[in-house]
Design goal:
- This protein is α+β, with helices and mostly antiparallel strands.
- It has one domain: Alpha-D-Glucose-1,6-Bisphosphate, Chain A, domain 4 (2-Layer Sandwich).
- The chain contains four helices and ten strands.
- Strands 1, 2, 3, 4, 5, 6, 7, 8, 9 and 10 form a ten-stranded mixed β-sheet that branches.
- It is globular and about 50 Å long.
- About 5% of the residues have low confidence.
- GO terms for molecular function: lipid binding.
């Protein structure tokens, strides 16, 4: 009987924090889950890209061009580059009326698994790097991008827990938590075909995996 209750104890947290499939379309899946201590759901978007690893890294490193493929992004720039692996990025997102625009300051850290070749950009919120702006609500982002070579494709994972700050209607919050990863990954598929990313110089810290035969 003790073993039975112990198994139930282990299963309950898994049920509470399990991922729920919200959308599956155009080769993109979006899952969400409830996170303890947060009023907002965490999202995880996944897809596969027919592109090489360096092309995708070049796209992600081009911060100002986020406005062309990140959902609702109105402005993005690297405000402080620490080294080739770490930087602080300022992002401003538009929001539907009557909600104020949001902005975020994040610390991104590049790392690569030497065994699998998978590249991860860890995303952490930071304070006191960019002053808050009148009429724009400061939020936080925490999560990661992961790019894992699988055969001749790259498996992309975009996982974020966001706190948009201020007051956001639940209906809007529940909509964007699915819409943002889906629309962003959909646009990403288009952007990696652009020649300026395909022909970009190799990232100095990137180890390119062997070309699949």
């Amino acid at each position: 009987m003790k073993h039975f209750y112990f198994i139930i104890f282990l299963l309950v947290p898994m049920q509470i924090f399990s991922w729920d499939l919200e959308k599956e379309k155009n080769g993109i899946t979006v899952h969400t889950r409830v996170v303890e201590g947060s009023d907002f759901k965490e999202f995880r978007g996944k897809t596969k890209l027919k592109a090489d690893l360096n092309t995708i890294i070049a796209l992600l490193e081009d911060n100002p061009n986020y406005v062309t493929w990140f959902k609702d992004c109105k402005h993005a720039e690297a405000v402080k580059v620490l080294n080739t692996r770490e930087k602080y990025i300022y992002i401003q997102n538009g929001a539907p009326w009557p909600v104020n625009d949001r902005d975020f300051v994040i610390h991104t850290i590049f790392s690569q698994d030497k065994n699998t070749g998978a590249v991860t950009y860890t995303i952490k919120p930071v304070a006191n790097i960019v002053a808050e702006k009148k009429g724009i609500v400061r939020g936080t982002l925490k999560g990661f991008w992961k790019f894992a070579p699988v055969g001749d494709e790259i498996e992309v994972t975009y996982q974020i827990l966001s706190d948009p700050g201020g007051s956001v209607p639940t209906s809007i919050a529940n909509f964007v938590v699915v819409d943002i990863p889906y629309e962003t990954l959909k646009k990403m598929k288009e952007k990696v075909t652009e020649s300026k990313y395909i022909n970009s110089p190799k990232h100095p810290d990137l180890i390119l995996p062997p070309v699949p035969k």
